[in-house]
Amino acid sequence: MVAYDPFAPEVLEDPHPVYKALRREDPVHYIERFDAFALARFADIWDASSNPALSTARGTTPSQLLTRVQPVTPMLNLMDPPEHTELRRAVKPYFAPRRVRELEPTIRSLVCEYLDKVRERGQCDAVNDLAQQVSVRVACTAIGIPLADSDHLNTLVWRFFAREPGVEGMTEDGLRAAEELSAYFLELVARRRAAGSDRDDVIDLFCRFELGGRRFTPEEIASHLSMLIIGGSETFPKTYANALHRLFEHPDQRAECVRDPSLIPHAYEEALRYDMPTQFLGRTAVSELEIGGRRIRPGQAVLFLYPSANRDELEFEDPDRFDIHRRPARILSFGAGTHACLGLHIARMEGRVCLEETLRRMPEYEVVAEESERLRTEFVQGFARLALRFEPF
Ligand code: HEM
């Protein structure tokens, strides 16, 4: 019988062989140590994502569901219907395709600005020099946070995700970073309220919004905004680095993208499918339910192994092949159902624009493996640094 523990060294090293065994032998796998079920198959996760018996209110991250050190504070993604539905409906227009289209010139000029900073060097770190800089600024713009604060926020988000060898879950410093993030937003909200601000942005929406006849407290608003900046800035750089890495490994597919940039959105989508950085998010059962013939009781955690779902042979033909010509009907990189990613239009546009400008300026870049660094945690897998070498332009 296949054994799966998200903290096991072989899982941290390369989870895909274990995920494959789970899909084949035990797709709804019980982990006794955490009293949790891990879902490995695409269809099970897709369906469970809309199942009202599964709640996000006790948290969705590994630290909330397994090691339980990260406190659960009010956030959109941790609310259940009907309150979640009401708030999500109010926030959604700020992330709708029309708004996001308006962001394209900003995104393009940010990418060009950061590419210009490295152009003469002939080498750079695609994560920290480029994507991280762009993505925190795009998230700030989309939310309404002053751009001048983006470096500070970038550092806090980075600390939040840091892990220490031998420590399961978040570090002490990561927990402190979460508090500092909250303090930053408390001050921002206080300034907005003192100025009687009434802007058409996400921050003022949270300040104005009434749920069940009550306004959010500053602490609640700070918590919602922390989630948005973390979710909005952290994942994108890893997906961009993965796309560059896989295109380098497949030079013929990279050449096709250079010749025909209309293939770039498909290349980014394939990189999202192939290398989903978030290893899992989860739910807690609030009433009894059954998945794949296994009974799940209230209080038990259910983990969605998203990267496993994206390589499910029942959903994708030859799933371990990287192929930019695939046109999948659906992928699970942005989740699905009730809590599907609100920022997916931003992420897709960021991916397209960043790859267009990168491939235009450095079509022959090389990935320098010895100088790159991989992040291997129970939560996130991907490049912490991706070293590129290229012809100065
Ligand atoms: C490549 C980048 C991104 C990826 C891969 C990604 C992925 C995801 C996933 C998998 C979920 C589902 C969470 C769950 O299952 O519990 C999610 C939710 C969410 N994402 Fe993203 N995301 C990205 C970028 C963004 C951006 C740029 C924003 C906003 C600026 C954003 C905002 C959100 C929000 C608000 C939710 C929660 C929605 C809800 O609970 O109703 N994301 N994202």
The number of distinct β-strands equals 14
The share of residues in helices is 40-55%
Main β sheet profile: 5 strands, mixed
Radius of gyration: 21 Å
CATH superfamily: Cytochrome P450
Tally of helical segments: 15
Structural class: alpha+beta
β-sheet strand percentage: 5-15%
Architecture in CATH?
A: Orthogonal Bundle
Reading off the top of the CATH hierarchy, the class is best stated as Mainly Alpha
- Can you write the helix and strand succession as a string? HHEEHEHHHEHHHHEEHHHEEEEHHEEEE
**Which fold name is given in CATH as the topology?**
Cytochrome p450
Give the neighbour order of strands across the main sheet.
1-2-10-7-3
Topology overview:
Blueprint lengths: L8 H5 L2 H10 L2 E4 L4 E4 L2 H7 L5 E2 L6 H6 L15 H9 L5 H22 L4 E3 H18 L6 H12 L10 H23 L7 H7 L1 E2 L2 E2 L2 H32 L1 H9 L4 H11 L6 E5 L3 E3 L2 E3 L4 E4 L1 H4 L34 H18 L4 E2 L5 E4 L4 E5 L1 E3 L4
Helix pairs in contact: 6-7, 6-15, 7-8, 7-11, 8-9, 8-11, 9-11, 11-13, 11-15, 13-15
Bound molecules: protoporphyrin IX containing FE.
Short synopsis of the structure:
The chain is of the alpha+beta class and 393 residues long.
What does this structure look like?
- It is a single chain.
- It is built from 15 helices and 14 strands.
- By secondary structure, the chain is α+β, with helices and mostly antiparallel strands.
- The chain has a single domain, classed as Cytochrome p450 (Orthogonal Bundle).
- It has a five-stranded mixed sheet. Strands 4-14-11 form a three-stranded antiparallel sheet.
- A hairpin with a 4-residue loop joins β1 and β2.
- α6 runs antiparallel to α7.
- The longest helix is centred in the middle third of the chain and has 32 residues.
- The termini are far apart.
- It binds protoporphyrin IX containing FE.
